[in-house]
């Protein structure tokens, strides 16, 4: 008898690869929980030139997100690089397209977490995490933060916040993910999956 898996959407946008690496670590944390499966998705770039379009399928990495992914997921991990204290425009553009899902209550009651990376240590990652929560709250989602029971949150000298995992990528975007950041990403994925499974069990 096959196990019915609870799918958790890991939706991210990444320009230099750091946020994608975080998404992959969070997905590993999700799949460390029996019965949970990560669904990695990204969003296409956008342009001020309205005729400019991306290919239907990305050249590399995760497929582009579809609105049905929101319907089918039991939980969501949302990630974006920091852009002046907010999520990147391509991710904002996607959420601006979810009015129908908001009206239908597609995401109400589903747990969600957020993660980000920035070029400088105090480059607005905490405000990015907080502002990324706002559309999720409007959708009725349940925000899952990172508790201080995670030792790495107390010892990190790079990224990591109680609002969700963060990464200090450096101004050249080449700084590797630190061990503390890695632990917090894995822990966040695991925590999100455990909560999603509990809520699914309670609803069954």
- First CA to last CA: what distance? 19 Å
Cα-atom radius of gyration? 16 Å
Dominant shape? globular
| Percent range of helical residues | 25-40%
Average residue-wise pLDDT: 92
Overall SS class: alpha/beta
Comma- or semicolon-separated keywords:
204 residues, alpha/beta, 7 helices, 6-stranded parallel beta sheet
How do the strands and helices of this protein lay out in sequence?
Blueprint: E1 6-12, H1 18-31, E2 36-42, H2 67-72, E3 75-81, H3 89-95, H4 99-104, E4 111-118, H5 125-138, E5 142-143, H6 151-155, E6 166-168, H7 179-203
Parallel strand pairs: 1-2, 1-3, 3-4, 4-5, 4-6
Structure description:
With 204 residues, this protein is of the alpha/beta class. Helix content is 38%, strand content 17%. The chain has seven helices and six strands; from the N terminus they run βαβαβααβαβαβα. It has helices at 18-31, 67-72, 89-95, 99-104, 125-138, 151-155, 179-203, and strands at 6-12, 36-42, 75-81, 111-118, 142-143, 166-168. Strands 1, 2, 3, 4, 5 and 6 form a six-stranded parallel sheet that branches. Helix 1 (18-31) links the parallel strand 1 and strand 2 (36-42). It starts with 5 loop residues before the first strand and ends with a helix. 43% of the residues are buried. The model has no long low-confidence stretch (mean pLDDT 92).
Short description:
The protein is α/β, with parallel strands linked by helices and 204 residues long. Strands 1, 2, 3, 4, 5 and 6 form a six-stranded parallel sheet that branches.
């Amino acid at each position: 008898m096959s196990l019915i898996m609870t799918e958790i959407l890991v939706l991210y946008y990444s320009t230099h690869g750091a946020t994608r690496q975080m998404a992959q670590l969070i997905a590993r944390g999700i799949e460390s929980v029996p019965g949970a499966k990560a669904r990695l998705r990204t969003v296409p770039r956008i342009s001020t030139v309205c005729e400019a379009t991306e290919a239907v399928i990305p050249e590399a990495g995760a497929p582009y997100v579809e609105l049905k992914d929101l319907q089918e997921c039991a939980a969501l991990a949302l990630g974006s690089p920091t852009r002046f204290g907010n999520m990147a425009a391509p991710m904002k553009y996607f959420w601006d397209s979810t009015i129908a899902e908001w009206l239908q209550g597609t995401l109400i009651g589903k747990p969600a977490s957020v993660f980000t990376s920035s070029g400088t240590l105090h480059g607005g990652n905490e405000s990015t995490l907080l502002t990324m929560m706002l559309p999720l709250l409007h959708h009725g989602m349940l925000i899952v933060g990172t508790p201080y029971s995670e030792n790495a949150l107390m010892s990190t000298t790079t990224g990591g916040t109680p609002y969700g995992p963060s990464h200090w990528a450096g101004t050249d975007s080449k700084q590797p993910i630190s061990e503390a950041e890695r632990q917090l990403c894995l822990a966040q994925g695991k925590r999100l999956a455990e909560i999603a499974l509990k809520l699914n069990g309670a609803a069954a």
